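Box 4.2: Ligand-aware structure prediction
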Amino acid sequence: MTVLVTGGAGYIGSHTVRMLRDAGREVVVLDSLEMGHEEALLGAELVVGEIADFDLVTKLCRERRVTSVIHFAAYKSVGESMTDPFRYFSNNVGGSTTLIDAVVAAGVEQFVFSSSAAIYGSPARIPVTEDLDAHPESVYAETKWMIERVLSWIGETRGLRSVCLRYFNAAGASFDSRIGEDWSVTTNLVPIVMKAALGRRGPLEVFGNDYPTRDGTGERDYIHVVDLADGHVKALDYLDSGKPSLACNLGTGRGSTVLEVLAETARISGREVPHVFSPRRAGDPAIVFADPSLAARELGWTARHGIVEILQTAWTWHSTHIDGYGTGR
Ligand code: WQD
């Protein structure tokens, strides 16, 4: 009954590994440590290797009697995917396809996939529901959608049951501040805001303040990383109960604007966040937030934390781990 977690030494992966172990699950992590940190595993079993190593994966699954896989390992920068598309298709699609081939060959029948709300592109409707057509607007988003399609076909031809979890904007850190996000490997808003507030970078660039939103700045559905981890545990329970394959949103159903994030961060930290207004970023929709009702109905999952806890835990993590792992103060 072991769970194989790929990319378990990464941001969302490490929070999920911790929650699985706290729930008494047997876990083994496969991570290349290219982006992840062994310190984030808090002692969980780690095999350092590549998801594309067919023989390593089949051997690991057979030896450790793996019955389920949670697959996080992927490159995740939207911008980088557009400047280096082959790196993204090779790793996120080629690597993931080999991983799926290997785990099926080893007899694994349950698979949870780290997908993304980015597959919707600029959503045709808000709040976003799972029946919306996929319109990926970046190579990164395309790679996530492609693996959703691979999983659907492998479900039909090999009987692999899967849950694809479409994350909205993951943010925050563990409540005891033992693990959190490595701001050196992300371009997302919250870690950048914390870095600016701590004076570890120049002012935040606010990408556009002329959007049709409450205050003119972009609005997103920020979801606490601990809530995301809980969604993965519940997805495993769902598959363990024999239920059919599913794709569902993991979001709060509420949006926050960039200026609201800045104001709340200033209140929490007692520091103004240096920022300047810049032109809109290409490809940014004005407003994106989830309709999370399918996950509530099918997984029994709802987000329990809001933007305040997200920013409180992010601030505590970054302000006490100024250079990330290995140098807590
Ligand atoms: C959030 C808001 C920006 C940075 C992407 C991926 C998605 C998911 C999350 C992986 C927007 C604004 C940001 C900055 C800013 N990743 N912003 N200045 O673009 O909503 O989603 O990351 O799954 O797949 O598409 O996240 O954090 O980049 O932006 O003003 O320096 O913050 O315009 O309104 P995004 P983000």
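In the box above, the bound molecule is WQD. The two ends are 38 Å apart (CA to CA).
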